[in-house]
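A.,

Following up on our hallway conversation. Structure tokens first:
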């Protein structure tokens, strides 16, 4: 075998080993990136979903009161002037 060809072959073998090492490190970093991505979803999205289902029953009375203030008769008119607001507040205070 030609010595120059053997020298080039040895250099290619060393380069391929270095590329293999670098590729292994890149794959490891990508794997950790995927894990961090899923953890980010779990940390931010899951508490929002849990809070929605937990707070919805607690906020339901407030939302009903708010909707009654905006639309007391169900006709779509809602509160249009100050006098109707005073009447509604007097009704709630009397009850």
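Then the amino acids I'd put at each of the 95 positions:
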């Amino acid at each position: 075998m030609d010595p120059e060809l053997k020298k080039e072959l040895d250099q290619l073998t060393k380069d391929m080993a270095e590329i293999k090492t670098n590729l292994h490190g890149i794959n490891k970093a990508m794997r950790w990136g995927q894990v961090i991505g899923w953890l980010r979803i779990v940390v931010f999205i899951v508490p929002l979903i849990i809070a929605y289902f937990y707070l919805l029953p607690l906020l339901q009375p407030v939302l009903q009161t708010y909707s009654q203030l905006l639309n007391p008769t169900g006709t779509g008119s809602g509160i249009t002037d100050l006098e109707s607001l005073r009447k509604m507040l007097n009704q709630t205070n009397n009850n």
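The mean pLDDT is 85. Curious whether your intuition agrees with the design.

B.
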